[in-house]
Amino acid sequence: MCGIVGYIGAKEKKEILLDGLQELEYRGYDSAGIAIIENNKLKYFKAVGKLQNLRDKTKDYTSSGFGVSIGHTRWATHGKPTELNAHPHLGKFSFVVHNGIIENYQNIKDELQKEGVRFISQTDTETIVHLFEHYYAKSNDSFDSFEKSISKLDGAYATLLISEASPDTIFFAKNGSPMLIGFDGDDIYFASSDTPIIGKAKEVYYLEDGEYGYAKDGEVKLFDKDGEKSFTTKPLATDKAMAQKDGYRFFMEKEIYEQSSVMSDTMIGRVLDDRVEFEELDESFFDGIENIKICACGTSYHSALTGAYLLERVAKIPCQVEIASEFRYKEPLLRDNTLFITISQSGETADTLEALKMAKRAGLKSLSICNVDNSSIVRESDRAILTRAGIEKGVASTKAFATQTMVLWMLTLYIAQRENSITKEILAQELDAMRHTPKALKVTEKLHNKLTRLSKRYLHGHGFFFIGRDIFFPLALEGALKLKEISYLHAEGYPSGEMKHGPIALADSELFTIALMPKSLHYEKIKSNVEELSARDATILAISPEPFELADDFVQTQYSSHPMLEFFEMMVVTQLLSLEVSVRLGNDVDMPRNLAKSVTVE
To answer: What are phi and psi of 99, to 5 degrees?
Structure first.
């Protein structure tokens, strides 16, 4: 969820960059930096932590006259949040900023290192600037060198490059990650979204995948695989709040859609060709650990329940999950062979933090899974794995749940590798499924339109049952919670096998059953459970890759080869259904009544 800004013109550049980066803070970041070429001299500044730290570093610097400039807020993916890993990245005479993932960066890095190029960061981004200078040494042509560099990259990227070799030019390219160009006379701006340039630029062009080019002398030259092309600008919106939503109606809707891209950020540098690695952990951290206890609240509790299934099934390690508010008062037995894991989106959840302190006092090793670096829970823990979801503004969590679950899945494989409880063949299958997860999370227009239409049938009645088995039971709990949070309708999540032990007494035509029916896990069992509900006249919405003839409504999913792919695809369906029901009821989707984003009280 990193942010990019750029400017070429005669205005004071430092403040344009810093103000622009401040407008991108909502995306989440852990370091920031700027680079400016003015009067043929290159200046750069970087800082870890909040943007104020970068402002403090640059307080004695003021730019003047014509120049080119780029800035970046970084969310750590490859490498820890340090100044060396912060953008912009420096070659001998050039700087680059970049959002996205260079999938073949290691191969490029290896090739350049063999030629004597020295790298100083752990990032994939640094390869771009060294590749540019490698080609420039051969051709002495800046744009040709940039073209060749971009053609060498595999993956998703939005990038800006400036160089003392062409001190009056900004080079740009876009593939997968968003970037736009703003215009105001001879002044040209670049940004990841509208907000940094609202009030500065009057017209805007949104770059398409595969487009690249350069800005110089108040003009932009645009190219794609077919050569130079013309383009048409649009008037720039003036509402910053709407611009932050990137055209979506609600932040929650935007966050559902961006789960696919943030999941790639969660995995990058961790899911490798043949294994899972965490630079945050060392092998000795798990010495003596024979048991895992996970403590969390709300949505994080549901991700913890999912993780417990995976840890016991795949890593073969006992795992118990505790609701933090209950754990604090049950006088739990804590043994020093237990790893204590806490999960929190904000890192400030009061009950979870107090449970962590109890475990620490008992001498347990602690690990936190969190979205916010330097939060209380992260600081209190022995180790922390960041989910890299970016800032989540919608109170009802979506991408935080998805990324927490992915971290637990990755942690499962990490432990299984260490303990040799998984074969190479099964590990390869798990890793392949992980790599397909971003695709399983993509929202198609067809799916969203269908759920918009379906939502009108689920506005009345006496309640909802979300049902599932195995890992789909925690997903049923989470689906019910999402609906409760934003629609204010009564909804419960149940293991589908528990229907006959009491809840089925509620079944009638006014009971809506959301049935999670994965093909890859216990399909015949849950099918039988749903048939029992249908026989009692319950209204059934089946979510499955397999058509179900007794369903009143049916949403067909695409993935059926691995339970976790089905899990994430069905998760998106339940999130969108909750969203559209809430919209039809006229509720405030992003700020539901009585709820807060970070629960810092008991």
So the answer is: -110, 145
Concatenating the DSSP letter of every residue in 195-252 gives GGGBTTBSEEEEPPTTEEEEEETTEEEEEETTEEE----EEPP--HHHHHTTT-SSHH
Q: What angle do CA 380, 297, 443 make, to 5 degrees?
A: 110
pLDDT of residue 333: 87
The superfamily (CATH) of domain 445-584 is Glucose-6-phosphate isomerase like protein; domain 1 (3.40.50.10490)
Residue 4 φ then ψ, to 5°: -125, 140
Question: For this structure, is 2 an active site residue?
Answer: yes
CATH number given to 251-438: 3.40.50.10490
Backbone angles phi, psi at 341, to 5 degrees: -105, 130
> Which residue in the list 2, 295, 319, 370 is annotated as catalytic?
2
Contact 24, 54 (CB under 8 A): no
Q: Which of 11, 50, 442, 597 is catalytic?
A: 597
Residues of the chain with CATH 3.40.50.10490: 251-438, 445-584
Q: Which pLDDT band holds residue 124 (cuts at 50, 70, 90)?
A: confident
Per residue in 164-190, pLDDT (tens digit) is 999 999 999 998 788 999 999 999 999
For the domain 3-243, what is the CATH code?
3.60.20.10
Nearest CA among 110, 111, 124 for reference residue 77: 124
Known catalytic residue: 221?
no
Give the predicted TM-score (pTM) of the model.
0.75
Average pLDDT on 273-281 reads 92
Q: How big is the chain, counted in residues? A: 602
Phi, psi (rounded to 5 degrees) for 229: -140, 155
With 0-12 / 13-18 / 19 or more C-beta atoms within 10 angstroms meaning exposed / middle / buried, residue 460 is exposed
Domain with CATH 3.60.20.10 in the chain: 3-243
